[in-house]
Design a protein that fits this description.
It contains three helices and seven strands; from the N terminus they run E-H-E-E-E-H-H-E-E-E. By secondary structure, the chain is α+β, with helices and mostly antiparallel strands.
Length: 81
């Protein structure tokens, strides 16, 4: 089960909003982080987040039992290790 952590700051709100809209993902809080968990690969479309490139490439704070298989200008894809 892939798990992705994002620091809860205003700059990452678009990222979290897109994750919450995905019905296959669960979003909760762990300390100052937002944890995104899914039974399927987690896929976040950059354009849907509204994030600029600098925020996009620095949004990931950590992974748990997961590996990033795509992180480019189009999308972030996190899969179970």
């Amino acid at each position: 089960m892939p798990r992705l952590y994002v620091l809860e700051v205003p700059e990452n709100e678009g990222f979290v909003r897109v994750a919450r809209a995905d019905t296959t993902s669960r979003v909760d809080h762990v300390g100052p982080y937002v944890r995104i968990t899914s039974a399927q690969p987690i896929v976040i479309d950059r354009r849907a987040t509204g994030c600029r490139h600098a925020v996009w490439y620095s949004a990931v704070a950590g992974l748990e039992g997961s590996v990033i298989t795509q992180h480019d200008k189009d999308a972030l894809r996190v899969e179970e290790r």
